[in-house]
Design brief:
heterotrimer; A alpha+beta; B alpha+beta; C alpha+beta; A: alpha+beta; Ubiquitin-like (UB roll); C: alpha+beta; Uridine Diphospho-n-acetylenolpyruvylglucosamine Reductase, domain 2; Enolase-like, domain 1; five-stranded antiparallel beta sheet; four-stranded antiparallel beta sheet; 11 helices; 25% strand
Chain lengths: 155, 787, 265
């Protein structure tokens, strides 16, 4: 079995995996980081979005071995010292979540957007979320939350 | 308590765990020694099973067991059940074929569970499943309702001749026929209500566990109603008794009806855990969810409206075929009958209404309640028909509706369809909606679109629904198999904090916040000091769960009533401490007092006294401050609304763009406006999904053509506009909170508004979903007709 | 997914060696198509050779009158690259419309064209712009590269290293996406430049990307949307599925071609 090492939320981790082990399986099963979810098997829903070397990707469509040596950030790595990240805080403030299942992927996807575009328009946010499906909210409050977070992060 | 009590947009108490990845969904749970189940699914829509050879699979690495229907039969394990007996026109009960938890001698749809492999790892289970040899004898399938009812059609079940589940009617046929005989104008319409796949984002999952020391079992599962699941598993599947079975529905990632039912995979997972003496975990893959989660809708309807020369509705006749799929489930008979037919009067005082429904078995996945369950279908029939009538008679659609509305002073209003509407103000909803959408300005906007080569349309839907499922007596009289109350237990802790146990279940609705608000408001303690617990039969007294928009009106009502019991007991304790008579003790905002004195005690002080009863009327009163209430209201609730949609169609491609969506709702008293608005948004998205994007399609051989998110179009952020919502809110008169329910409203009212807008834009009737090609073809046919 | 041996070579030579020693090896670019295929158990390679660590495959350069994009360059990089945006904005826009942001962060141009999904966007870009595919063995004109649905001119031991796009005078891309998968139901790249006037269609053809000579002839006279009026493609050999019939696709080819020309300015 190949061994894989990477940094997850700032911590160095190593694990035994198969070649076929997906990154999301490694996170959920080996590391017990169950905040990253699996909502589909065709790379459409985005519940599994994490950051690899600063970019958002779908952890269900990445092998664990492909992340060798990479810096991974998951939803568990977003809050610092118990304080919600501004995007997390904005989702709470603007009711950008209901059942919570898509939420980790939404937050991670939004974080990638805001590092590229610090002041996205509503259409820009909506287009960016093409790879994230939410069945509960109708997206309106998610969009509102992301724009509010952008404003908060611009200061 | 204004900041945290009823009516405040309290931010959700549950959000922090979801936002930080600490939610605990079923698949996040791992039990010591856990094995993994994988189900072999039928690739055929209809086949005889001549034999199943599991020999090679049993020998595969890591395999602990391979089981088929024969193993379940040997242990007397039952299959899915139907929870509602519908009495047919001929007085007989509906047909409910016997179904086992794994297919036995035949399969009736693609994706039906045939065998299960349990292995040390999921991969081993999956690998071994490929080694199972099933000797299928494929047979001609039937997926369309009319074909299934035809003479000589393939027969799905030996005990259901003609594939007819029931032939049912509602209303007065003679009265309706008489109305049509004197009609000035009759509008006729044929409507397909497209079949949908619920697609809650969390796939279903289950973990079964058995403790031989206590001979008891636990099932962790993605359920909207864990107590009902326990009841059904114990009473019908042989997996009880109830006091030896614990069902836990932890965080659940959306339900929309699809997680009400007790599915085959849950039954088998629980049974296998005991059989093998190991915890067994099963999680659906999305592609399997498409195949065997319960689907929704799928009606084929002909409807007619009789109108006099002034546009007054005289009579309505509706004839519907409803697909129930391969076999019945818990609500699959109630949904296309009572939950549909009772709403055919809509917001109108049409004096005579007659509806008849035939439900049909086909070689497709079971169809059952999905967000709205029958009421979106009824609304769609009525509001498409009304809109068409307005067009045919040349009467403005708002004016035609206005002429026929049940008026505010007519409530309570007995409809010709069994139910008695309790309250509402339909003209108010319409008027406000017209203002918000700027109805008067539409012709100019349409002109502006035309100048850009686009076709603009406006559509509306004025709807009413019955929800807050309850009352038990009515439900029982109509054939329902269970009670429809809800329970709540409020437990004061000695140090002043409160734990609330509710039989409702939150899978996105925010009970942990809203129920805490009710307690905060009535017991005068901060919302932060209230913890709401749900979803575990081992700790919650009992519950009927969450569906039919019942948590607020029924579950919330139970919380309120339990809080009142707390107040009354506290009053007696306070009277003792004040050395006053109970009648003289006043209670307000968490404080007891005696009028005309400076004596006061807070609720926290009373709670302490109740648990530390050193100075306490022990001869009259038990210690402790812990009250339970079961609430069973006397009627359904009747939310209503007026929805407006405005769209633009690109005639070159047929693409529909939503420009505006306005929803004016009467959902009764609003306990948390932020949450109510969120529920409405979500309902709009699902209703718009039905109108424009979503469709479940089987081919004639019963293969599912929309078997993944690559082909089944879920609405994304860039498909939807920002919605405009307002509430008018006439309190419900027969529950203590005045709440009507808001979970399904958006999905009930929006499909008709959206499709009416598309039809208004293109000038031709079309079916949902209004996909680009369908719209383009409709425009081509209109152009040809004009030539 | 069936298990496989995983290789992550640092050079093309290492990749070729891993491939040749495998009984049934498969090259992987970003894996955005391959991994979903493997997850569905629709393929069972003995070895997967991941090309993502080969530095010589990545990067975007301007060479003469062409933009050369390394095969390992992901869609997001193409979309965001300043040279591509200024010299061939239609290509940047096309890349920006592939999949979703997360797919664009991993999916590569080399992987996309080697897979040659008939509904993928890049084949239209390559053929519509008259690009040249560079491999470890040779250079192949785009017209000769795509040979049929999921088929290319690549030999078993051939690896795409880069794609060279001649900078056009003008070019535009218009796509009508599948509402669910967001792949192209019809995508049209129209251009005028060193490779002549080109109209390439993806999503519609049963054999994958194809050129529409009647439209190219019309546009050669006058490169304007009006020039395409009355020029249509027959529906005979077009794809038909749940989302679009062949007849509708044929119609959309006309509409998208006009929009592509309009977008070209």
């Amino acid at each position: 079995m190949p061994s894989v090492s990477m940094t997850v939320n700032g911590k160095a981790v190593t694990g035994e995996v198969e070649g076929r082990t997906l990154l999301v399986e490694f996170l959920r099963q080996n590391l017990n980081l169950t905040g990253t979810h699996v909502g589909c098997d065709t790379s459409q829903c985005g519940a599994c979005v994490v950051h690899v070397n600063g970019k958002s990707i779908k952890a269900c469509t990445t092998l664990a071995v492909q992340a060798e040596g990479a810096e991974i950030i998951t939803i568990e790595g977003m809050a610092t010292n118990g304080d919600l990240h501004p995007i997390q805080a904005a989702f709470k403030e603007h009711h950008g979540l209901q059942c919570g299942f898509c939420t980790p992927g939404m937050v991670m996807s939004a974080a990638d957007l805001l590092q590229r575009n610090s002041n996205p328009s509503e259409p820009e946010v909506r287009e960016w979320l093409e790879g994230n499906i939410c069945r509960c909210t109708g997206y309106q409050n998610i969009v509102k939350a992301i724009q509010a977070a952008a404003q908060a992060m611009r200061g | 308590m204004a900041e945290t009590g009823i009516g405040a947009s309290v931010r959700r108490k549950e959000d922090n765990r979801f936002l930080t990845g600490k939610g605990r969904y079923t698949d996040d749970i791992n039990r010591l020694g856990q094995a993994y189940a994988y189900f072999l699914l039928s690739p055929h829509a209809r086949a005889k099973i001549n034999g199943i050879d599991t020999g090679a699979a049993k020998q595969a690495p890591g395999v602990l067991g391979v089981f088929t229907a024969a193993d379940l039969a040997a242990d007397g394990v039952g299959g899915p059940i139907c929870g509602w007996v519908v009495t047919q026109k001929n007085g007989e009960p509906h047909k409910s074929p016997a179904v086992s938890a794994l297919a036995s001698d035949r399969v009736n749809y693609v994706g039906e569970q045939v065998a299960v492999v349990v292995a040390e790892t999921l991969t081993q289970a999956k690998d071994a499943a490929e080694l199972i040899e099933v000797d299928y004898e494929p047979q001609q399938a039937v997926t369309k309702m009319k074909a299934s009812l035809a003479k000589g059609a393939p027969q799905l079940h030996d005990d259901v001749p003609g594939n007819l589940c029931f032939d049912w009617e509602i209303g007065d046929k003679a009265a309706a026929d008489a109305a049509f005989a004197k009609a000035h104008h009759v509008t006729k319409i044929d409507i397909l209500n497209n079949r949908l796949i619920p697609n809650a984002l969390e796939p279903r999952a289950a973990i079964g566990e058995y403790d031989s020391g206590t001979d008891s079992s636990t099932l962790y599962t993605t359920s909207q109603n864990p107590h009902v699941a326990r009841l059904v598993l114990a009473a019908f599947m042989g997996l009880g008794p109830e006091n030896k079975l614990r069902v836990v529905a932890p965080d659940v990632g959306g339900g929309f009806g699809s997680k009400i039912y007790v599915y085959r995979d849950e039954i088998v997972t629980l049974w296998a855990a005991k059989k093998l003496g190991r915890p067994v975990k099963w999680t659906a893959e999305r592609s399997a969810s498409f195949l065997n989660d319960a689907h929704g809708r799928d009606h084929d309807t002909h409807a007619e409206l009789a109108v006099d020369k002034d546009g007054n509705f005289l009579g309505l006749r509706v004839s519907t075929l409803a697909n129930v799929g391969a076999h019945n489930q818990i609500f699959s008979t109630a949904t296309p009958s009572y939950l549909y037919g009772c709403l055919l009067a809509g917001q109108y005082k049409t004096p005579a209404v007659y509806g008849e429904v035939k439900t049909v078995f086909t070689n497709t996945a079971p169809v059952d309640a999905y967000r709205g369950a029958g009421r979106p279908e009824a609304t769609f029939v009525v509001e498409r028909l009304v809109e068409k009538t307005a067009r045919e008679m040349g009467i403005d659609r708002t004016e035609l509706r206005r002429r026929n509305f049940i008026q505010p002073e007519q409530f309570p209003y007995q409809t010709p369809c069994l139910v008695q509407y309790d309250s509402g103000d339909f003209p108010l909803l319409l008027n406000r909606g017209m203002e918000v959408i700027d109805y008067a300005g539409f012709p100019a906007r349409r002109q502006a679109s035309a100048s850009r080569g686009k076709l603009r349309g406006l559509g509306l839907s004025c709807w009413v629904e019955a929800c807050g499922l309850a009352p038990s007596a009515v439900v029982g009289a109509l054939g329902g198999g269970v009670g429809q109350w809800e329970s709540a237990n409020i437990k004061f802790n000695p140090t002043g904090s409160v734990t609330v146990f509710t039989g409702s279940h939150s899978h996105g609705q925010g009970h942990e916040t809203v129920f805490a608000q009710i307690v905060s408001e009535h017991l005068g303690i901060p919302v932060e000091s209230v913890e709401v617990v749900h979803g575990d039969t081992a700790v919650v007294p009992f519950g009927m769960g969450t569906y039919g928009s019942r948590s607020g009106p029924v579950g919330g009502g139970a919380v309120y009533k339990a809080a009142q019991k707390i107040v009354e007991k506290g009053r007696k304790i306070a009277a003792h401490l004040f050395e006053a008579s109970v009648e003289d003790v006043e209670y307000a905002n968490g404080t007891y007092s005696v009028a005309g004195t400076d004596k006061t005690k807070t609720m926290a002080e009373i709670a302490f006294a109740a648990y530390v009863p050193h100075n306490y009327p022990l001869d009259e009163l038990e210690p402790g401050l812990d009250e339970t209430s079961f609430f069973d209201p006397m009627n359904f609730t009747f939310p209503s609304g007026a929805y407006f949609a405005e769209v633009e169609v690109d005639p070159d491609t047929g693409q529909v763009t939503i420009l505006d969506m306005v929803g004016i709702d009467d959902v009764g008293t609003v306990m948390n406006p932020m949450i109510v608005t969120g529920q409405l948004h979500g309902g709009f998205a699902q209703g718009i999904g039905q109108a424009l994007y979503e469709q479940c399609v089987y081919d004639d051989d019963g293969q599912l053509l929309t078997g993944s998110l690559m082909d089944y179009c879920m609405p994304r952020a860039d498909n939807l506009p920002s919605f405009k919502t307002e509430e008018t809110n006439q309190p419900c008169p027969h529950n203590p909170l005045g709440v009507k329910g808001c979970g399904e409203a958006g999905a009930i009212g929006s499909p008709a508004a959206m499709l009416n807008a598309v039809v208004d834009a293109i000038g031709v009737d079309i079916d949902m979903p209004a996909t680009p090609e369908k719209v383009w073809r409709a425009l081509q046919s209109r152009a040809q007709a004009a030539e | 997914m069936y298990d496989f041996n995983y290789h992550r070579p640092k050079s093309i030579d290492e990749a070729l060696s891993a491939l040749s020693s495998a009984s049934d090896g498969k090259l992987m670019g970003g894996g955005q198509t391959l991994l979903p295929t493997l997850k569905q158990r629709l393929a069972s390679p003995s070895d997967v050779v991941d090309l993502s660590a080969i530095s010589e495959l990545s990067g975007i350069t301007e060479q003469g009158g062409a933009i050369v994009i390394g095969a390992g360059t992901c869609h997001a990089e193409v979309a965001g690259n300043a040279s591509v945006q200024s010299k061939i904005p239609a290509l940047a826009a096309l890349a920006e419309g592939i999949g979703d942001p997360q797919v664009r962060n991993r999916g590569t141009i080399g992987g996309s064209i080697a897979n040659n999904d008939p509904a993928a966007d890049y084949p239209a870009a390559l053929v519509g712009l008259g690009a040249t595919v560079k491999t470890n063995m040779r250079e192949v004109a785009a017209d000769d590269f795509f040979t049929g649905m999921f088929e290319t001119a690549l030999a078993d031991d051939e690896i795409v290293t880069a794609v060279s796009f001649p900078v056009p005078e003008k070019a535009g891309y218009a796509k009508f996406p599948n509402p669910a998968s967001r792949y192209a139901i019809v995508g049209v790249m129209a251009s005028k430049g060193p490779a002549g006037v080109r109209v390439a269609v993806t999503g519609a053809g049963q054999g994958g990307v194809f050129r529409v000579s009647a439209m190219e002839t019309a546009l050669a006279g006058h490169f304007s949307a009006e020039a395409l009026t009355g020029v249509s493609v027959p529906a005979d050999d077009l794809n038909a599925d749940l989302h679009a019939s062949a007849e509708y696709r044929a119609h959309l080819v006309g509409v998208m071609a006009k929009r592509a020309v309009d977008a070209a300015g």
